[in-house]
Amino acid sequence: MCQCQNNGTCDHIYGNCTCPAGFHGPCCEEACPFGFYGLQCQEVCHCEKQCYCDHVTGSCNVTDAPVAKELFMKGLLMLIAKKGGEKKQK
């Protein structure tokens, strides 16, 4: 049985959560890491001067910048993992 968070929807047949934009993880428990946004956190933020980007919409918001070292590292690891998966598929 699903225990989806952040308004994720449950597939009651397979027990998987489908996450809304801005969230990922088995139960949609994690917001997109720093530098990413959107469905499955696949969109890359394009904010100037490394400003915070909204994890749902990708909009840039200078006044809402988190202390970002941990979020930045998560984003970097996600990007590295994505690039590694692309190389394996070739």
From TrEMBL:
It comes from the Eukaryota. InterPro entries: EGF, MEGF10/SREC1/2-like. This is EGF-like domain-containing protein. Keywords: EGF-like domain. Signal peptide: none annotated. Residues 17-28 form the EGF-like domain.
